[in-house]
Amino acid sequence: xxxxxxxxxxxxxxxxxxxxxxxxxxxxxxxxxxxxxxxxxxxxxxxxxxxxxxxxxxxxxxxxxxxxxxxxxxxxxxxxxxxxxxxxxxxxxxxxxxxxxxxxxxxxxxxxxxxxxxxxxxxxxxxxxxxxxxxxxxxxxxxxxxxxxxxxxxxxxxxxxxxxxxxxxxxxxxxxxxxxxxxxxxxxxxxxxxxxxxxxxxxxxxxxxxxxxxxxxxxxxxxxxxxxxxxxxxxxxxxxxxxxxxxxxxxxxxxxxxxxxxxxxxxxxxxxxxxxxxxxxxxxxxxxxxxxxxxxxxxxxxxxxxxxxxxxxxxxxxxxxxxxxxxxxxxxxxxxxxxxxxxxxxxxxxxxxxxxxxxxxxxxxxxxxxxxxxxxxxxxxxxxxxxxxxxxxxxxxx
Length: 398
Description:
The protein has 17 helices and nine strands. The chain is α/β, with parallel strands linked by helices. The protein has one domain (2-20, 30-298). Helix 1 (2-20) crosses helix 10 (231-239), helix 6 packs across helix 7 and helix 16 runs antiparallel to helix 17 (369-377). The longest helix is centred in the middle third of the chain and has 23 residues, at 125-147. It starts with a helix and ends in a 12-residue tail after the last strand.
């Protein structure tokens, strides 16, 4: 069984890494957990964090204890925080070359501070989003209390792949739609521990976070990925190791509380639901999350991978970056939207880094919109559009 796990896991890892590879190897990120180091990185706690992308996905508990927000330097309240969220079978180190390139620009280096979120990527999207919100809420409260500043519309989030789906949870408003799709009764009716009841309530009710200024989505499968239904994806789904708290909650839902679950959701949970299974195109959860309204006070942008400059054919739109179809990466009313000739590792591409650089600068009041439009339109990419009539533009001037 151990050999089978290794072979199957390596197959999944290879499939993703081929599409996400980068030719350069910049200096490793030396990270320290936010709660340990926001006043100053402590050398005995700082490390080149490694969740072990494969091991963290396959081995229960390996990545859970490292879940959280990380810094490379003491938090500077005068700078604009940018949070990078990795995707499936990945870890913060995937942002090394992006961070290195961006910091070569002195304006970016002086105006922005980079933070990184690490999490066990086998966790289903909904509880994983709840964990992100808990960690971010805590960090934002700490910053406001310790530094006496307001974080209102101050955080910029950059999410790659599944990290983009988690980022979208920060700006989406579910009302009761998500809860009613899954359950027949209010949370008070469930036979759960207090912790499980709180987790369930937080996970299935999305509320926009007012501290988010803008989100940049990079190759994010908003409407799912064919990977989830492929042979490799099915292997990964079967072998993925969810956190124990998620396992315990799923067991409680499908046993003593099974009569309170909507039929379609009950069968979904019973089938060892995990991050890959929640990415199936046209699944009830995937479509519902994709259609949740986005906070009108937030700016958002999308960058997708496409197979060539001839990206508009049905075949090309279906292929996308080889993992995420173009139609899945698109989000209506994106202020900036671009297509990069790339595999799934679109965040490693130089043109993507130029786009992120430009968008950070416009949000940070370093350039105006006319300059932004000029920079976007001069990119050597299949398509790059900037829509002034789309999601509002939030600018941080202080």
